[in-house]
DNA sequence: GTCTATATGTTGATAGAC
DNA sequence: GTCTATCAACATATAGAC
């Protein structure tokens, strides 16, 4: 790996943590340099400006969702519906791990950057879409356990909504209970959907 | 009304709009002075610093929720369940009115301010709690139309979650559809709860 | 590619006359 | 209470030697 690639990687890693902990605007280039032990020249040799660091960070989230988020969350969980709640359990764990200061990095950036460049906004949107898309695949795998008229895309987005809203309220109140109650409500939602599908089974081919 | 009170009111109003449009960190004192046509001396005569302007803004949201948000949303809507969706419809209207750039001012500030002063955090929490509390009152008014074991506090928070998540995704994708699908899912949730309560009516006193 | 020094602008906040 | 002028700190980004 070339030295520049290493430098780039160190910057992206440090910026990822700093943007998550302090936000984009409150993170200075000096913060990134301090954490990476690099000099301004090195950073500006790799990135034209601060926004390009943000873009690289969002690309890293996009490219790492499978390996860094879904894979560890779904370790040993095969049932597609339970995978949804296993992912939410992982967020719960992160909330506890950070003393209820955890914020979803994508969600926080999405709300912090009010007049974001189209490239940045697209990357935020792609990150959301991939997250919800992963849930949607679980819902597809659940097949006819869900009612036939279930909008699986909408339900995937709904799970993302519950995560974001739960994380937001838990952080603001410094209390996981707000996240837990949201997940409980979502569990009730799924229970009712599954019960409805069980009461009115799908027409089987040949009926 | 004393001149200072007028000055204070103008600053709070301007800051409210600016924090909503640009965020707290990206709004400078100069922005506020420019919009209010005031000078630095006047602002710092009323407020010790920028954070105190934020506190005043959050207090204004807290004190205005009934008059500025709930009252207009519930004009002519009496059914407690429909009031919930009328409030969400008002958010939909704001999303459209802003070309899908609308962000909930409280939610945005809650995620932007990573290391907020306890006073600020409490005010954010109170704003959330009052919003969810207003929904909870609707749910209480719905009485036995909802299942007896329904956690009405949790469900009120859940409605807030759906609003925040829907607004967040709609803004990021610049597409109301994301908000609409979230509200639809919540409608399904309520329909299932109401149907469940109708199937298993509450034990009536004397049964 | 990396270093140091620095340009250039903006920030929140203050001083002191009126 | 309001005005103007200004401070000190910090921001992003650049220049040019090595």
Report on the architecture of this protein.
Two copies of one chain form a homodimer. Chain A is an all-alpha fold and 207 residues long. Chain A has two domains: 1-57, Homeodomain-like (Arc Repressor Mutant, subunit A, Orthogonal Bundle); 78-207, Tetracycline Repressor, domain 2 (Orthogonal Bundle), CATH 1.10.357.10. Chain A is 74% helix and 0% strand. Chain A starts with a helix and ends in an 8-residue tail after the last helix. The mean pLDDT of chain A is 96. Chains A and B meet through α6, α7, α8 and α9 of A and α6, α7, α8 and α9 of B. Chains A, B: Keywords: DNA-binding, Transcription, Transcription regulation. Chains A, B: This is AcrR family transcriptional regulator. Chains A, B: It comes from Brevundimonas basaltis. Chains A, B: It holds the Pfam family TetR_C_13.
């Amino acid at each position: 790996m070339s030295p520049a690639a290493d430098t780039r990687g160190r910057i992206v890693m440090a910026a990822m943590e700093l943007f998550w902990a302090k936000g984009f605007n409150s993170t200075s280039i000096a913060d990134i340099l301090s954490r990476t032990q690099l000099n301004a020249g090195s950073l500006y040799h790799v990135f034209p400006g601060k926004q390009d660091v943000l873009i690289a960070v969002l690309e890293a989230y996009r490219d790492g969702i499978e390996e860094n988020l879904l894979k560890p969350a779904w370790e040993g969980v095969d049932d597609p519906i339970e995978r949804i709640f296993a992912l939410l359990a992982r967020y719960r764990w992160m909330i506890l791990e950070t003393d209820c200061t955890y914020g979803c990095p994508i969600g926080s950036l999405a709300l912090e950057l009010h007049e974001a460049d189209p490239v940045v906004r697209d990357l935020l949107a792609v990150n959301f879409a991939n997250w919800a898309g992963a849930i949607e695949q679980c819902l597809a795998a659940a097949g006819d356990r869900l009612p036939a008229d279930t909008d699986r895309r909408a339900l995937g987005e709904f799970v993302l909504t519950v995560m974001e809203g739960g994380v937001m309220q838990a952080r603001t109140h410094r209390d996981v209970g707000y996240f837990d109650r949201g997940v409980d409500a979502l569990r009730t939602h799924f229970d009712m959907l599954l019960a409805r599908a069980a009461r009115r089974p799908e027409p089987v081919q040949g009926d």
